[in-house]
Queue: 2 jobs
Job 1
Amino acid sequence: MNEKDEVKNQNEISDHSKCESEKNEYLEGWKRAKADLINYKRDEEKRFEEVAKFSVSSLLKEIIPVLDSFDLAITALEKNGMAEKGILMIRAQLEDALRKGGLEKIAAKEGDEFDPQIHESIGEEESEFEEGKISNIIEKGYSLHGRVVRPARVKVSK
Amino acid sequence: MSKIIGIDLGTTYSAVAVMEGDQPRILENSEGNRTMPSIVALSKSGERLVGLLAKRQSVTNPKNTVFSVKRFIGRKWTDEEVQHDKAWLSYDIQESSSGGVEVKMGDKLYKPEEISAMVLAKIKSDAEMRLGEPVEEAVITVPAYFDDAQRQATKNAGEIAGFKVRRILPEPTAAALAYGFNKKKDERIVVYDFGGGTFDVSVLEVAEDTIEVKAIGGDTHLGGDDFDKRIIEYLVKEYKQREGVDLSVDSLAIQRLKEAAERSKHELSTALEAEINIPYITADASGPKHFLIKLTRAKLEELVHDLIEKSITHLDKTIKDAGFTVKEINEIILVGGQTRMPAMQEAVEKYFGKKPHRDINPDEVVALGAAVQGGILQGDVKDILLLDVTPLSLGIETLGGIFTKLIEKNTTIPTSKSQVFSTAADNQTSVEIHVLQGEREIASGNKTLARFILDGIPPAPRGMPQVEVTFDIDANGILSVSAKEKKTDKVQSVRIEATTSLSKEEVERLKKEAAEKATEDHKKRDLVESKNNAEQLIYVTEKSLKDAGEKVPADVKESITKKIENLKTVKDSEDVEKIKSAAGELSTEIQKIGSSMYNENNENKENKPNDNQGAAE
């Protein structure tokens, strides 16, 4: 083999390896794009499910204060001995409708350990309970499919 | 290779985003929220809490709840800022041995970057959960005024959290990237960032491949929270005047009032009036009391007018510091939730004499821009991978000269689309495929790219044969159109080059023309479609009359024939309404065929109970 041929051969080899590396780069890019699309589709499905499940949360957030007002109204009326069965029924009806939509009341009672996962403290006070326990429930908490829509607003014993 | 995420590590809130395809997307955290409070706490039970959970217990655990730590990161103890902020903090800070700041949480002392690292660590694990893969690299944003020490400390925070920090990016630069302004060479951009607790103005200049910060200004203690405070103060004062009750001493009342005030502030960004309605807010000797006050947009603007003015003064000063005049500014970007307030937008617009950009969610724009930077570093946004789009829609001509689109304009290529068409007449043995490009609904208004004929279709009634038309555009914009008769598999095709080679002007002209003729075309299309429907209806009715033969009573047959004749005469007119009503009458009428046959069938059944071979079955 003479020198010229060798140079030519080497050029061919380097051309070939350039092609090879380009091919690999493109194939890699193509595979990545395909994988991205498949993953995107899967994620999108999951996101749709989530959206469908939680799309009502903003509406629920608006309705929860109405439930609060109902609670306050009923307490005030009971004090005056004016609480009518009808009003209690309307409240139950509203709660029932929301429960069907997936809204659940967060269980919280005085003396429970304060848990920021489901409770929010809005103040401290002296009470019969140990320090760090819930002394007073100010507003009820609600969750939707296990996700807290509004934590229970509580006072904590100090 | 894992993705590089973009993090907006804010004073009060943080957000995180990632590139997906060619667009950045916000990642929700484990609680399902798009932003998270930048708060860390050591709970009374000794548990470390980050984000929303830390916020929820802050009232009862103020000493061990650390917020706004960004105000101390990388600062010296002797800094004026630190001495000023120290006064209003609920937690303790002290001088570190190296002259920096240390934060006390529980019994331990932490550097501010260690606290920030706890926030970043939660962001990291939440992002990994969302993406379903490990996340190792991040771009983190900082205010433009951060000095080297502050940037280095932020970078350290990222590294403590387990990130490889690929870049520390100024927040205004991130906002400009989110809007794609890095491509606007030689432009000058102002970023007006009104956040919850801080207000920043930056002047940027876009040079070759870089965005340079020319001047910065603002007020680190001016923000949307001040607006909320003003509203609550006003409402408390107003209520005291009207009802003689001081709500500020009642924690439940204040809690409800706070929420209502925030809601009304948001509402007043779109409405002119908001009603703050809080039943049973308190009680006195006379019984329960309610809260009902109307807040108008004008009143809100009056309450915070001076705060907005203050921000404009800072804006003016910063532009002057940069050495520019107002006229030399090309783009203005609004960042921060408070910029949703119309009065604020108007103030900025009035100052510049042009509209600021605010199409991207102002709470998320910085994180999105950081993700864009991450994408650039990763190579996702490499120029050679930029995919072309079809500038105009592509499709074929269908019955009555209608343009039926197969590929919509602005579709990213390469792509392919198929649709099945059929014949318009009985025993039609060939179809002409007329390939068109354009936006008009009427075929003749668009540009013809090719015509070809597919023949050899086996004779059949109209609507029966299935011809599948496929459009395929490759990455070079070359369009292949094929038509296949599905029964015989006979195929004809054509290849058209240079579908994307139209000049920009030509594309614009065609789009404009389509927009101008849109109503006219739509009317024409409506007419053609009504005619097509009428013809189809006549065809079907005549066929079923024939098929049913003697089973249809003579009177029914006669009335239907009359309606058919009526439709036949009006269908060639230009009156859409007449055609539609005649077609409507006919379709009501033909239901009689079915019902008369059904009745007959029932009668038959009564007469011959053993005969199950009813005609209508």
Job 2
Amino acid sequence: MNDMIEIRWHGRGGQGAKTASLLLADAAFNTGKYIQGFPEYGPERMGAPITAYNRISSSPIRIHSNIYEPDYVVVVDDTLLESVDVTAGLKQEGAIVINTVKENEEIKKLLKGYNGKIFKIDARKVSMETLGKYFPNTPMLAAIVKVSKIMNEDEFLKDMEGSFKHKFAKKPEVIDGNMKALQLALKELKEV
Amino acid sequence: MSIRERLSGNEAAATAMKQINPDVVAAFPITPSTEIPQYFSTFVDNGLVDTEFVAVESEHSAMSACIGAESAGARAMTATSANGLSLMWEMIYIASSLRLPIVMSLVNRAVSGPLNIHNDHSDAMGVRDSGWIQLFSETNQEAYDNLIMAHRIAENKDVLLPLMVCQDGFITSHSIENIELIEDEKVKEFVGEYHPEHYLLNRNEPIAVGPLDVQTYLFEHKYQQAEAMRNAKKVILEVAKEFEKLTGRKYGLFEEYKLEDAEIAIVCMNSTAGTTKDVVDSLRERGIKAGLLKVRVFRPFPAEEIAEALKHLKAIAVLDKADSLNGVGGALFEDVATGMYINKTTIPMASYVYGIGGRDTTAKDIESVFSDLIKDSKKEKIENPYRYIGLRKE
């Protein structure tokens, strides 16, 4: 069975797009899937555009190359819409999820005629309300899970709680905020 | 029961090293293998291993420390990439000529210059004739499995050669993927304890290590190294058989994928083999008889076995992730060609240099090679056999 889902992440160095792709791989792994989560390493600096990738499948994944025709694209920083062709190769029956407060018309204009589904979320607002700091990757992770339906939301939240408990074993005070960020993000996601 | 996990290639290598629990690890960080000593040093700090971790000031010293440790009678491991291996160069030859079964994780990266941190095989190809056994790994799983088998091969008394386990920098080293781990106790039992026959710290048998080897001896010593390398083939297969009993995972000198009835085939190493398998499957759906031969053991080179496995084909492409800059073709191509010639097999065969400096190799790239082969298979003599994949012409 070939049910492979391919996701491409666009972010800027330091925003956690790579970490988000690894967390998504983790979550899908925990539901029994075969996964790949990998960044495309360039000459990284804080703030420079970066790309990360996920493949998720029910059968073993053998291909080892970047993703050129993704099913989904996640844009962690909307300033990239002007400089990076984020919808390049994106399947029309797929979707793009953008962290932005821009108006729908402006978003459509920036995506230059992409006909697939477009979703937006104000990840800054979600992050500030729940974590008190700007960490866009946690809300974006919840958003792509909801859009791609890789797993059901309850299963995802339960699994992430386990991951956060493990990841933040020495900082238990941030677990609650991260969980709230996921929950709020699932509510705040809007179709453009 | 094996343990279902998800690890990057570097994590997989570090995990294997943790389970092997060697006496000494000496390493200096270099991209993209940095994480291996980094993870391993945390295992040391957390008391998960009782290894002596030597944080040296250069790769030359890393290899020197491994040589010292192995000479003393200890089991030693290291990890490096590209220019790190270049800096080890002098000691690489010392290690193999002293017949010290050191095990290295080589996370393949382009050797400078110009400076590039990304994947190709120029580092491994640069030391292909240094007397080290070289195993290549398609996935994190294979990098892990090859390391678990490494000491059993290297320390065998008919071999006694150092061994490097290669995997593709970033492509597998930094990609999180599924992996089946073996339980700690089973690894410990499989790898076994290291009891060298001759070693410096044996006070009952005082020996000298590394004295001057004059005209009357060096030739014979080199012959013994060559003989050990020839012996390694058999030992690699014996260890693989035992490993299969332990895990169910089968390893040979190379892997044949839909090769038996193939008419055209690609020969390659490491992660590109995975992409090629996907392409072979899609071509087969269209009725094209494509196949793959993935080389696992590059040193010793199984020339005869490979020639035998390829002899029924109509055209072959050998993919090298390092350009030998010799005007003829890549190193793997030359070795395969030699094997074919000795075994009196003449089939149209081309050398493809690809993926240099981290140039991504896609399924489309691999498809284009098979398209070439379909054309080549109809010709008597192959034209322009020195080719490139994904090279920009402007």
